């Protein structure tokens, strides 16, 4: 690869980084609920994407590739992570009885939305997040989850039905 080809590839990669860095970070943060871990995973996503490009691979859909890499890294990080015990949390100052008032009114809405999303099982929650928060297409979600588009569409529909049922049963 000559210098001009490298510069073109580098420019396209940096544009992709600017476009999707925040979305990948939000996805990793939502999946891990740990800001530092999300930052590390986001960096690793782009590192792996860059390595993939430097191996001479062609990318048709950058967004889909990045979310696929992110999904795999999140799953791998869960496999590696050791869970902390409640005793360890208490020793570090965690107080489950501490009731902190929301700083902003929108925080109430966010908590209600998260509570509602948490009523869904894993894959249903994930497709809703990818579709309506990250605004990915059904095709992109299907690729990330390694499923057919039809299966993904059905999963989104069923998840929405479950959310409607949950929202009418609970007051958030």
Key phrases:
75% helix, 0% strand, 172 residues, mainly alpha, 8 helices
State the gist of this model.
With 172 residues, the chain is mainly alpha-helical. It contains eight helices and no strands. The chain has helices at residues 3-32, 35-54, 62-80, 86-91, 105-117, 122-133, 138-145, 149-169.
Element layout with pairings:
Blueprint: H1 3-32, H2 35-54, H3 62-80, H4 86-91, H5 105-117, H6 122-133, H7 138-145, H8 149-169
How would you describe what is shown here?
There is one protein chain. The protein is mainly alpha-helical and 172 residues long. Helices cover 75% and strands 0% of the residues. It has 8 helices and no strands. It has helices at residues 3-32, 35-54, 62-80, 86-91, 105-117, 122-133, 138-145, 149-169. The mean pLDDT is 82.
* SSE run: HHHHHHHH
Q: How many E strands?
A: 0
In which range does the helix fraction lie?
Answer: over 70%
Shape: globular
The pLDDT mean sits at 82
Spatial extent as radius of gyration: 19 Å
Helix-strand category? mainly alpha
> For the terminal residues, how far apart are their CA atoms?
57 Å
Work out the helix count. Answer: 8
**Uncertain runs with pLDDT below 50, 5 residues or more?**
none
Residues in β-strands, percent: under 5%
Largest sheet: none
